[in-house]
């Protein structure tokens, strides 16, 4: 799909062993990443996997004063073909010296796209679920996540906090290209599925999310640049419809009629909020995967957080991490192996007899993992 350089260097080459960095980080990350590893190890086709355990996270920061060791960065860059990241417990208040390791990794590895599929599953566990098949593509390197903040005191002694926001033509253009290319790829994949079984039955469509009616310079540049991707490549993308949605009305419409969206592309902050909200449409954050994608590296990452309230209880939902492992395979070019992972997860959800508490069941992390392994054919 997106990682063309990576695909050439792995699936189409003589690489027989794929080295994956495992970064469980905080909370339930230490429970769900091992589950994803077990699934990868159980695949009976494709490459052999070698895993390397790496450190990062807020809990590591509390112990050592660093949230992302240089050794972790160097190992990922120099030794690994891809990675799986668990979850990070970023505090809601300022902690001197701390910065999010996942945000830093995206920058160090130039993982400029966060790709988050949100697709409904035909399951008795979700009787009122709408049929949707949406792909949210979040620009991963800019917006307010550049973390350029400062504080001042006014003449009255009152504090004022400022945050800089960055939107560049370069980043907007490359994420726009990914959105339109993935719209075409999704259409090709759908052509192999009978029309009656497709959730999306229209032309491929890219929805550009912005707030340029208020932020006319930053979001104005974003909107103009992403629209320009289609306009400058009219012949290539002639079969792809394009629309726009203001971010506030996007949230409203997404909950009212999520079936109206195919590929949604958004700046970093909007994409983060939209994709987390979209998880409510398919049952739980515990089932929604993502992949941080660059041109030569991919890092799978479940959308959920570290969930400290259930950490260590053995009831965390491993499905998001397992699906993220599938996305890792997919973006490395191992499509058939990725489909096996997706199908095994869908079979467990469709059966609905083995579900973790977030989905209304009483099964454990291990129960769900074992069920996925049994369906892995």
From TrEMBL:
SUPFAM superfamilies: Isocitrate/Isopropylmalate dehydrogenase-like (SSF53659). Keywords: Magnesium, Metal-binding, NAD, Oxidoreductase. Its cofactor is Mg(2+). The keyword Ubl conjugation does not apply. One of its GO terms (biological process) is tricarboxylic acid cycle. Coiled coil: none annotated. GO terms for cellular component: mitochondrion. Residues 19-372 form the Isopropylmalate dehydrogenase-like domain. The keyword Secreted does not apply. GO terms for molecular function: homoisocitrate dehydrogenase activity; isocitrate dehydrogenase (NAD+) activity; magnesium ion binding; NAD binding. Belongs to the isocitrate and isopropylmalate dehydrogenases family. This is Isopropylmalate dehydrogenase-like domain-containing protein. The gene is PARPA_11020.1 scaffold 42168.
